[in-house]
Amino acid sequence: MSTLQAEHVYKVFGNRPDDAVRALEGGGDRAELRADGATAAVIDVSFEVEPGQIFVVMGLSGSGKSTLLRMLNGLLEPTAGRILFDGQDLTELSGRELRRVRSTKISMVFQHFALFPHRNVLENAGYGLEVQGVPRADRERRAAEALALCGLEGWEMAWPDELSGGMQQRVGLARALATDADLLLMDESFSALDPLIRRDMQDQLLELQRTLKKTIVFITHDLNEAMRLGDGIAVMRDGRVVQQGTAEDILTRPADDYVASFVQDVDRSRVLTADAVMTTTRPHRPGVDSCGCPTVTADTPLADLCAVSARVPHPVTVTGTDGAVVGSVPQDRLVAFIGDEQRAPVRCAEVAA
Known about the structure:
Belongs to the ABC transporter superfamily. It holds the Pfam family ABC_tran. The protein is an alpha/beta fold. It has 16 helices and 13 strands. The radius of gyration is 24 Å and the shape is globular.
């Protein structure tokens, strides 16, 4: 069962929101509704997030992504549609029940850190546990464990203004992890950081995800960030999801000109993997398993695959997690896919040496 589902969700602000939803369902125009005093922020959005998945919602400012996120934990009530969390309809919960779900099962990581300046790092990391009523000794232990996971061991007694921006964001992430919530909602969480720290935080999140396997909804306006983090991606425009799929789907099969314009400057070699270009036919070469040449796996980035392809005189062998051969990548196919110039390979013996 999916951890999180959105089913035909609408959010309209302003005059007669229910009438606006009916107009939108009948093909009404968003601009016409605005002229009547209604702003359609989210329009007929549906998606599912599987357990342990990072689901990225991306779009420009005003696309509706942050409004959508706030409906996922009940901070905003949908005008129409349902939000299901672990099979439970959040739109039917009482205020008290919803607060309990938010305090124990859903955590949020904000864009601007939201740390308390009068609390030290350990106290900030344990704040969610304090709200839950967890005894002090237990919450300090769990907060310290979360800080260690985020690379902040030894900084427990520091104050927020003693930390860099990246470290402060790590405290915010540790606070979310300390509650052991099933679902993390991350709203432009890295966008206030400079590019190098931002990439470090992306690395940190991916490393944590390999260990913790949390279910995460991540909001961003940065396509490269979306492509790097997302197991699944939804692209929003003017309140609607215009395309949903994997990074490979969106890069290689954009749904319309709007999505195509988004992806045109993306470095495909850093996003796509060998799986996108390999043939599933096992290479018929004597000694393929013992020639000494390097091999790749299906999730090897194309940039790394190119480096291997330039060093071997035959199609690059692709292996599975068990080491068995699952396919190969001929050099001409790789060159055609990325539009690069072919580089002359060396002999197997030279690679083995």
